[in-house]
Amino acid sequence: MKKTSNLLVLVGLLAFLLGSGLVISVLQRERRDSAPPPASAAVLVARQAIPAGTAADEAVAAGTIVRREVVDDARPATALASLSELSGRTIDVDVAAGEPLLTSHLRPLTLRAGAIEIPPGKQGVAVQLGFVAGGAGYVGRGDFVNLYGNVVPSEAEGTVTKLVLGNIEVLDVSSEIAPRRDIGDERPTGSALTYLLALTPEEAERVIFLSANGELWVALAGDEAAPLPATPGRRAADVLQ
User: Fold this and answer.
1) How confident is the model at residue 120 (pLDDT cuts 50, 70, 90)?
2) In a domain, 213, yes or no
3) Is 201 within the bounds of a domain?
């Protein structure tokens, strides 16, 4: 009789333990089912290998860069998340297929990006001119100027002043000062001015030569100036004629 009682106690204990285990298992399953899913984050990924020097806009258009969702913990801190971050940028390193794009993969934007547009067939040539010879601060970005040069062709001929180029677009200038009539009697003067001019290769040769070996002067042209006629140039012998 005693043995039977002990057996019943043991069976009851086992049943209790088994039931408890089942309850705990159900509770854990319910807890897992009710837990929120892991946080996700967007990341830009290379669908195929992208060589260094590739324009990011071209890679996006070709579908070689796509946006994917990954577990937030797996996203690199400097990973790019939006295609808009690639606009106008260049991929500066080789990126393997499946690799996320990082900010360090992109070539830094220049300060002029989006601000200066060089016309087709032209190049931006920087020249430095004295304050008065450079237009005294009256010339601004987007203006057109005529360039005059002082040069000495030979000792016998002396200095010649001549119109060199007409209607040259100013892409940028280091300083622009408002006219005196807009700011009162005191119009500040300044130091040398640096111009970025839109020039063809042939025009650039002439301007660079005169900058290095002669003297350049800037004249502010009208917004819709007509082509300038050829001029004979002036020398000491005929400047007063």
Assistant:
1) very high
2) yes
3) yes
| Residue that finishes a domain, picked among 76, 105, 134 | 105
Please check whether residue 44 is in contact with residue 83, taking contact to mean a CB–CB distance below 8 angstroms. Answer: yes
- Cβ–Cβ under 8 Å, residues 157 and 234: no
Nearest of 131, 145, 144, 127 to residue 213 by alpha carbon = 127
127 & 195 share domain = yes
Measure the CA–CA gap between 39 and 82, rounded to whole angstroms: 18
Contact 78/97 with Cβ under 8 angstroms? no
Q: Are both 99 and 152 inside the same structural domain?
A: no
Buried b (16+ CB within 10 A) or exposed e, 36-56: eeeeeeebbbbeeebeeebeb
Range(s) of the domain holding residue 137: 123-220
Task: Tell me, rounded to whole angstroms, the distance of Cα 113 from its chain centroid.
Answer: 4
Q: Do 74 and 127 belong to one domain?
A: no
Identify which of 230, 211, 215, 237 has the alpha carbon closest to the alpha carbon of residue 163. Answer: 230
What are 2's two structure tokens?
Answer: 């005693």
pLDDT digits (tens, 9 = 90+) for 192-207: 899 999 999 999 999 9
Domain-embedded: residue 215: yes
How far, in Å, CA of 61 to CA of 128, rounded?
A: 41
pTM value is 0.58
- Give one word for 16, left, alpha or beta, with left for phi > 0 and alpha for psi -120 to 50: alpha
* Residue 117 domain flag: no
Percentages helix, strand, coil for the chain (3-state, rounded to 5) are: 25, 30, 45
CB 170 within 8 A of CB 194: no
In this structure, what token pair is assigned to residue 221? 């042209």
